[in-house]
């Protein structure tokens, strides 16, 4: 199952950090890539590209000037999950979503989410019915979707690798370069 994330309404000045964190969470928790709408942000794309070059994997980032077309095009072959505090509880629908075996587009908002998104989604899913953040909602959703298997993710082609330590930090250069 391929899982991509659609981040709605990115605003480079206001959302720089949160969108970066959202995309890093998407990558670390097993998504294959992200597409974002709103305003194009080349610094964001470069930052994510640098992380992928250093830490590996085949994660990609793209921009779309029409979230509506993204949703419609994705809906033709895959399924759409919209994360919102107003949706159905994650714990009630996650097995059904996992069981559909289709590729998934996971939509997360920023500022106001257009009402049409709720209609175009196959599932509107709440990660608790309390307000929090797109970063936490996405991380918990992916963790439940993959039943924790993403924690053992392997990122091929990495230049850097953390060697886990009980204390302190150890990072190895595994690029094999000179
Ligand atoms: N009122 C918004 C909502 O519909 O969830 C909260 C806006 S929040 C700043 C930005 C994004 O975080 C939302 O569009 C949604 O994708 C995600 N989010 C926040 N709380 C959530 C929750 N409890 N469950 C699922 N997603 C949530």
Topology record:
Blueprint: E1 3-10, H1 12-28, E2 33-38, H2 42-55, E3 60-63, H3 67-77, E4 79-89, H4 90-99, E5 104-108, H5 115-120, E6 123-126, H6 134-145, E7 160-162, E8 171-173
Helix pairs in contact: 1-2, 1-6
Bound molecules: S-adenosylmethionine (SAM).
Structure, described:
It is a single chain. This protein is of the alpha/beta class. The chain has a single domain, classed as Alpha/beta knot. It is built from six helices and eight strands; from the N terminus they run βαβαβαβαβαβαββ. It has helices at 12-28, 42-55, 67-77, 90-99, 115-120, 134-145, and strands at residues 3-10, 33-38, 60-63, 79-89, 104-108, 123-126, 160-162, 171-173. Strands 3-2-1-5-4-6 form a six-stranded parallel β-sheet. It has a two-stranded antiparallel ribbon with strand order 7-8. Helix 1 (12-28) packs parallel to helix 6. The radius of gyration is 17 Å and the shape is globular. The mean pLDDT is 96. The structure holds S-adenosylmethionine.
